């Protein structure tokens, strides 16, 4: 089984990481600006639902999955690293990383690394 490394990170802490493919999670709405959500992380169901469940987010997610599935189908590597970033690496990139890990769990041996998460929830 191929290995899929999912790494979330914040662009304000690091410009990039060593990865084969990148996903910009800044297309999703940002819970940082919602007082009751600001201190929570993308590891919580509340943040994941906030980020991924509106109509615009669902459309963006479909496009991300189409592009990523095409890449994964055609890349000839036994180990693939996907970098998922947002501004601070606490909400959107983490929530998307968790979604992707669940989505691909039956197809790949998955590892997750949240580079910039500050667990406050």
Could you name the key traits of this structure?
121 residues; alpha/beta; four-stranded parallel sheet; 4 strands; globular
Task: Walk me through the topology.
Elements: E1 3-10, E2 21-24, H1 45-52, H2 55-74, E3 79-86, H3 92-103, E4 109-114
Parallel strand pairs: 1-3, 1-4, 2-3
Explain what this protein looks like in three dimensions.
By secondary structure, this protein is α/β, with parallel strands linked by helices. 33% of the residues lie in helices and 21% in strands. It has 3 helices and 4 strands, in the order ββααβαβ. A 4-stranded parallel sheet has the order 2-3-1-4, covered by helices on one side. The termini are far apart.
Percent in strands: 15-25%
**How many beta strands in the DSSP annotation?**
4
Mean pLDDT over the full residue set: 94
N-to-C SSE string, H for helix and E for strand: EEHHEHE
The side-by-side strand order for the widest beta sheet comes to 2-3-1-4
- Unreliable residue stretches: none
Biggest sheet architecture: 4 strands, parallel
**Helix amount:** 25-40%
Summing up helix and strand content along with how strands pair, one would put the structural category as alpha/beta
Q: How many helical elements?
A: 3
Q: Identify the overall geometry.
A: globular
State the end-to-end distance. 34 Å
Rg is: 14 Å
């Amino acid at each position: 089984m191929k290995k899929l490394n999912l790494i979330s990170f914040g662009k304000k802490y690091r410009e990039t990481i060593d990865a084969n493919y990148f996903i910009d999670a800044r297309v999703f709405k940002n819970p940082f600006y919602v007082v009751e959500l600001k201190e929570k992380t993308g590891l919580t169901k509340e943040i994941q639902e906030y980020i991924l469940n509106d109509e615009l987010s669902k459309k963006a997610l479909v496009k991300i999955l189409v592009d990523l599935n095409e890449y994964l189908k055609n890349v000839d590597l036994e180990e693939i690293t996907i970098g998922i970033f947002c501004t601070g690496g606490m909400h959107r990139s983490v929530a998307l990383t968790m979604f992707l890990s669940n989505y691909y769990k039956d197809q790949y041996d998955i590892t997750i690394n949240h580079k910039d998460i500050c667990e406050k929830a």
